[in-house]
Structure formats: structure tokens, C-alpha cells
Design goal:
The chain is an alpha+beta fold. The chain is built from 6 helices and 6 strands, in the order E-E-E-H-H-H-E-E-E-H-H-H.
Length: 179
């Protein structure tokens, strides 16, 4: 199921949370009602499908490489992501992706919670992603494009923060009076 972007944007409610789970290969094993509603899917359309069925073409490959490298090393990751709905609409989220472990500590899948991102954070991440996408577009082949985008993203993060997590949280507006 491949849809083309329409330019229509959807927004999560302020207290809404999208939840999905995947197996080790990234196939969806669970999607909550918010995932289905905002993505314009039925449960039958997503269960067993690769999670990248919601990948928007304006989302840099480099961010997904970072995501997979991180969760496969048993770490969590927060990232801003633009997703594509079945009907071509798009929606931005702040994703928190973690590995799921069995009783013996083995990774058995992945869990993602997504919430509505702050508009100021989106205003700051969109130009970063546009620059990374432009770098990826200069390279032929997915592997070379991803590597070039990942290198540029790493350089951008290094200039503004110590780690990707610090970079993501630096995009969030600071509360007045917070120190």
C-alpha cells in the first residue's frame, strides 16, 4: 500500500498518544486506535506489514538509520518524524522508540509511543531535515545516500549538542523561569 503525499496535514490531540509495536524485522504486531485513525488505516491493513509503510518521502533515511542502529543496540531514541497516512495526509510526531525485552533480557521487538510535537521544535527540525534530504539526493543508491545523510546529520548534531538525544531536546522550547 503506497500513497502519495497530498500536502494535507493532520495533528494529534494534545493528550493523544500513538502506540505501535513491531517484531524484530519491523513488522507491525500492534497499533492502537490513534495510530489507525490518524494514519487512515484499518487494523487489517497494518498488522503484519513493515512499519515503514508510513514513511514519508520527506523524512531523511539517515534518521531511520540512526533509529535502527540505536534500538538494535538495546538503547532508546527520541526523534521528530513526519509520517504518511494511507490517504496521503501527513502528520508530525515526537517518537520515543525502545526495544522490548523478554524475561531473559533478549530483544523480542520494538515499541514506539508518539506524541504531538511542539510547533517551535518543528520549525527548527524541518530545515535540518531539508538539508539532510538534499544531501541524500546528491547520491545515487540508497546506501550511499543514507551514509552521506548520516554523516551530515552527525556533523550538524556535533555543532549544536553533544548527542542526538541532547540535540532533540534542545529543539524543545524552554519553559519560562526554568533553569
Amino acid at each position: 500500500m503506497t500513497s502519495r503525499p497530498t500536502g494535507v496535514e493532520r495533528h494529534l490531540g494534545p493528550d493523544e498518544l500513538i502506540v505501535s509495536k513491531t517484531d524484530l524485522q519491523g513488522r507491525i504486531t500492534y497499533a492502537n486506535e490513534s495510530f489507525l485513525r490518524i494514519g487512515a488505516f484499518t487494523e487489517d491493513q497494518v498488522i503484519g506489514q513493515p512499519h515503514n509503510l508510513i514513511r514519508h518521502p520527506e523524512m531523511p533515511r539517515a534518521v531511520f538509520k540512526l533509529l535502527w542502529d540505536t534500538v538494535q543496540s538495546k538503547q532508546e531514541l527520541f526523534a521528530y518524524v513526519v509520517n504518511l497516512a494511507a490517504d496521503g495526509a501527513h502528520y508530525w510526531v515526537l517518537a520515543h522508540v525502545t526495544p522490548s525485552f523478554d524475561a531473559h533480557g533478549a530483544v523480542v521487538g520494538y515499541h514506539s509511543n508518539r506524541r504531538r510535537p511542539h510547533p517551535e521544535a518543528l520549525a527548527r527540525i524541518k530545515p535540518v531535515y531539508a538539508e539532510v534530504l538534499a544531501e541524500e539526493a546528491r547520491h545515487s543508491g540508497a546506501r550511499a545516500a543514507t551514509a552521506a545523510g548520516a554523516e551530515l546529520l552527525a556533523q550538524m548534531v556535533a555543532r549544536s549538542a553533544g548527542s542526538y538525544d541532547e540535540f532533540v531536546w534542545s529543539l524543545e522550547p524552554q519553559e519560562v523561569g526554568a533553569r
